[in-house]
Specification:
single chain; about 140 residues; mainly beta; 1 helix; about 5% helix
Length: about 140
């Protein structure tokens, strides 16, 4: 990215596994992929807390939150117990897990899953909205 900036080449930075444009990045940040195109260069950088292979660099210990203070939301699905660190929960009060279906109102939102992983409600390859940690498999 430094070379592109120094050469005054138009460039875009996208988050790996999401296709979304990165809101912030460092010019010396690790680059996972570079694609040269007619409109400039597209750099793909890892999502926060991940390396280019999609592995978590560090999974922080979930911070327990007392149930009365935990945000309750009326999504769909939800199984298993929670860690107390999830911002969005199922109607039963459980944290979501990777691969679970998303409620319409959660589309595009993010939360921490029951294992502390960062999940985003996004469409899968078949167009079904599911919670995903961005790692294939």
């Amino acid at each position: 990215m430094l070379a592109a900036k120094a050469a005054h080449i138009d460039y875009t930075v996208r988050l790996q596994g999401t296709g979304r444009q990165a809101a912030t990045w460092d010019l010396d940040e690790e680059v996972c992929e570079q694609i040269d195109g007619p409109d400039g260069v597209t750099f793909t950088v890892p999502r926060d807390g991940r390396d280019c292979a999609g592995r978590l660099l560090h999974t922080p210990d979930p911070v327990p939150t007392p149930a009365p203070e935990r945000m309750k939301d009326t999504g769909t699905g939800g199984t298993g117990g929670g860690t107390g660190a999830c911002e969005l929960t199922s109607p039963a009060g459980n944290c979501y897990a990777d691969g679970q279906f998303c409620a319409k109102k959660h589309r595009g939102l993010s939360t921490h899953g029951r294992g502390g992983e960062y999940l985003t409600c996004e469409p899968d390859s078949g167009g079904t909205w599911r919670w995903s940690d961005g790692v294939v498999g």
